[in-house]
Design goal:
The chain has about 110 residues and is α+β, with helices and mostly antiparallel strands. It contains 4 helices and 5 strands.
């Protein structure tokens, strides 16, 4: 069985490796981005991370950030941040059922 961080890293890797299947936007905040993928995308534990009309917020452990640095830097480069430094990562996920989309928001602090 996959851990929570395994599922999150797999979703992020999918978005990075299939940019044609995702919409990535710089968020309203300089330190955040949001991404949308089709809700038909196969994801482990989708019901846990992408509940209908709700959001799930995870503060990722420092070990997750260390283990996924290159992957996270790909997304961090899409923010409006001027500096290249972050220590904390919050990931918000949810399912926008009427749009048939999964939401993934990354907030770097």
């Amino acid at each position: 069985m996959l851990s929570n961080s395994d599922t999150i890293s797999q979703v992020l890797a999918y978005i990075k490796n299939h940019p044609d299947k995702a919409v990535i936007n710089a968020g309203y905040y300089t330190n955040a981005i949001d991404a949308f993928i089709a809700d038909t995308t196969k994801i482990s534990n989708a019901d846990r991370f992408f509940p209908d009309h709700k959001v799930v917020v995870n503060r990722m452990a420092p070990e997750f950030i260390d283990a996924n640095g290159d992957l996270l830097d790909y997304f961090y480069d899409k923010t409006k941040q001027a500096d290249q430094n972050y220590h904390d990562l919050w990931i918000t996920t949810g399912h926008i059922a009427e749009s048939n989309k999964y939401l993934i928001e990354l907030s770097f602090e």
